[in-house]
Amino acid sequence: MAQMQNSQSVALQLEKVRDKLPLLYERDDILLTMIQQRGDVERVSSRNMRLPLQIRPGGKAGLANMDGGDLGRGSGTVYDVAQVTPVFFRHAVEITKLVEYASNAPEKAIENAAKREVKNAMAQFRAFLDKVMQTNGNGVLGTISSIASTTFTMAKPPGSVLVYYNQTIQVYDPTLTTNRGSCNVTAVDPFGSTITVDSVPAGTSANDVIVHDGLTGAQPVSLFGLLYHQSNATTGTWLNLNRATYPVELATPRVNGNNSTLTPAPYASRSTKYAKPSGQIKCRSLSHTRRSNRSISGSSSASRSRKSSRKVQAGARAISICSLPAKNRWPACRSNLQSMPTSRAWIFSTSRTGDAR
Q1: What is the spatial distance between Cα 193 and Cα 198, in angstroms, rounded to a whole number?
Q2: Which tens digits make up the pLDDT trace of 76-92?
Q3: How does pLDDT run across 260-297, given as a tens digit for each residue?
Q4: CB 221, CB 172: distance < 8 Å
Q5: CATH second-level architecture of 140-212?
């Protein structure tokens, strides 16, 4: 009789199952987390929430004659109120009772499927809200540039990155007037900017837009995202405030890059435009030591002073080239021209965002 082979002992062998479940798809919620960590979150009812704003300055400044002169009339600060309306979102997950029974003990499964699905659902729900927060308030997740069978090629930006597998989406015409119908996403290629659906709604064509599920009617309204708030428009409304009434205060400064190579010039222009109307200047890191009062020219002369250190950390939130009083005499900022010591400290800071909005 021949020797016993492995095929005869397979029935005795144990099957090893790795108890790790790596995540193989994108599920980030960075922006949502940043907003929640800020702590400025309010509990509201179904009524609009009012947001008082100090929009314009008041007062009449000028030279005065203190020897009985007329001080003139004054004025006051301009206040107005923005309003936000609560909106509600849901994330539906469905499992059978057998799924729960078949995985409710360590002897049956490496994870309790019911409990893990609740955890997955909350994480995916947060990722969905994070994607919606990238939109301009109408729920548009992307624009269809071309159609091949059941595959949509999405225009950039944002391509297909705001859509996830198995999501139910709706197709609207470019004017957001006609709802062509809904479909389910069966594949997403964020690198090729394509979306594959189970069935294409009738009448779908290039330049149509896709929106998330639950929106109805013409001109749907969703969560107000970045593209809604970060706008340089001077018409329309922002949180029930007329942009034409406050064309500067409600507009976000922007520099058009014209699809050209990123250079320091538009970057600096954006920074200056941001600082002029807002006046907010915050530098994350600025250190210095005193140095001898001698002129410097270029980097070679500056490098000879080992006791001097002045740095500005890139990524500062406030953005400007500004002048602040200095207790000690600081040397002027390095430039191509000869610089002399000055009694004012020049602070340079930049924004981390390249496409200024």
Answers
A1: 17
A2: 999 999 999 888 999 99
A3: 887 888 778 777 777 766 665 554 433 343 343 333 33
A4: no
A5: Beta Barrel (2.40)
Q: What is the DSSP string of 54-120?
A: EEE---------TTT---------EEEEEEE------------HHHHHHTSSTTT-SS-HHHHHHHH
Domain residue ranges of the chain, discontinuous segments joined by +: 97-132, 140-212, 261-357
Q: What pLDDT, on the 0 to 100 scale, is given for residue 341?
A: 41
The H or E element that residue 38 is part of is helix 30-38
Say if CB 191 and CB 153 are below 8 A apart. no
Q: Which residue has the tokens 């309790």?
A: 112
30-38 vs 113-132: helix crossing angle, rounded to 10: 80
How big is the CA angle at 51 (ends 48 and 54), to the nearest 5 degrees? 155
- Residue listed under structure tokens 């990238």: 134
Residue with tokens 């400290």: 345
- Give which of 276, 232, 227 is closest to 254, Cα–Cα: 232
Per the rule left: phi > 0, alpha: psi between -120 and 50, beta: everything else, 9 is alpha
- Burial grade of 54 (CB within 10 A; 0-12, 13-18, 19 or more): exposed
Residues forming a β-bridge with 242: 237
Phi, psi angles (nearest 5°) of residue 128? -65, -45
* C-alpha distances in Å from residue 129, one per residue of 136, 162, 230: 13, 10, 18
How far apart are the C-alpha atoms of 235 and 228, rounded to whole Å? 13
In terms of Cα–Cα distance, which of 45, 48, 73, 44 is closest to 59? 73
The Cβ of residue 47 has, within 10 Å, a number of other Cβ atoms equal to 9
User: 0.85 exceeded by the pTM?
Assistant: no
* Integer Cα distance of 214 and 195 in angstroms: 19
